[in-house]
Amino acid sequence: MVATDLVFESLLNGLLLGGIYAVAALGLSLVFGIMDIVNLAHGHMLMVGAYVSILLFTATGITPLVGMVLAAVVLFGFGMLLQRFVLKNVVGEGIEQPIIVLFGLALVLQSLGRIVLGSDAQAADIGIPGDAIAIGSATLSFPRMVTFVVALVLILGTWAFLKYTTTGLAIRATAQSTSAAQYMGIDTDNIYVLTLGIGTALAGAAGALLSMLFPITPFVGWSYLLKAFAVVVLGGVGSVAGTLVGGLILGVSENVGVLWLGGGFRDIISFSIFLGVLLIRPQGLFGNSGGGE
Questions:
Q1: DSSP-assigned beta bridge partners for residue 216
Q2: Residue 34: half-sphere exposure toward Cβ, Cα within 13 Å
Q3: In this structure, which of 2, 157, 166, 187 has its CB flanked by the most CB atoms within 10 Å?
Q4: pLDDT band for position 135 (cuts 50, 70, 90)
Q5: From CA 116, how far away is CA 119, in angstroms rounded?
Q6: What's the angle, vertex CA 168, arms to CA 167 and CA 173, rounded to 5?
């Protein structure tokens, strides 16, 4: 029998973890909702972002929160170049070709990570002094609280960008209808470049945040891709609010579920949620056809 206090603490920690899952999934959801591309390399881009943060922390001692900014910038540029010079040639040619290209990219990133950085797990410390925070009978770690706040800022910032800026309006118009957006004078090629840049930047930021909580290896990309898929399926493609709720549900489900099943079942819980939602409500909790709210 699991103690009630432990369940309560796991639930709160799951909420905090779910915020990062939501950031990771938001990039995947944006790219899929706007460009109709299933980015199979999204988890490996997250892995690259985590290593950028870890290497910066190891070399200089700078907090991974700063490394997160660097990781987001690096992945933003990478995503834009990827769309500009590679994916541009296969987008619109059917769903198979982008998937094959991105699957190959995921394997390349994983192999490069193993060759250059080795297979041993690495992690970064938040590098900011702070005590654990007590909420009722639960005690929450300071890094988890900080990463959750940063994750919320990233999600709200993305939502505000899509909702209130001219570029965000153009992105949402492109998601609704590419041909109509072009008729209105929107350069959809540049919108695709920017969208993939934002999606990969969010993956990089999520990786940097996760590097403060969990060890990272070159092989974590598939696991985090699965979690991002589960969140997108839960929240519905293109819904920022749904992605946040989906991330929180997944984080809580994993953290509470492992109390009874054990830590080795964490990914199985994610996969079970992914399949269950697909069977029961495939459009997700907040599913719509638009790209962002």
A1: 122
A2: 32
A3: 187
A4: confident
A5: 9
A6: 95
| 290 — pLDDT class (breaks 50, 70, 90) | very low
- 92-97: list long-range contacts, CB under 8 Å, 24+ apart: 95/36, 95/38
Give how far the C-alpha of residue 75 lies from the chain's centroid of Cα atoms, to the nearest Å.
Answer: 12
Residues sharing a CB contact under 8 Å with residue 170, sequence separation 6 or more, in sequence order: 181, 186, 191
d(CA 159, CA 101): 29
**pTM score over 0.85:** yes
Give 119's DSSP letter: S
DSSP structure string for 122-162 = B-----S----EEETTEEE-HHHHHHHHHHHHHHHHHHHHH
pLDDT in tens, 263-284: 788 888 888 888 888 888 777 7
C-alpha span between 105 and 42 (Å, rounded): 10
Q: Copy the structure tokens of residue 88.
A: 């541009």
Alpha-carbon distance of 281 to 234, in angstroms, equals: 8
Cβ atoms < 10 Å from Cβ of 2: 10
Per-residue pLDDT tens digits for 45-87? 999 999 999 999 999 888 888 999 999 999 999 999 999 999 9
Q: Which residues touch 189 (CB under 8 Å, ≥6 apart)?
A: 88
Distance CA 251, CA 253 (A): 6
**2 pLDDT above the threshold of 90:** no
Determine the Cα–Cα distance for residues 283 and 289; give it in Å rounded to an integer.
Answer: 9
The answer to whether 237 and 66 are in contact (CB under 8 A) is no
Average pLDDT over residues 159-177: 93
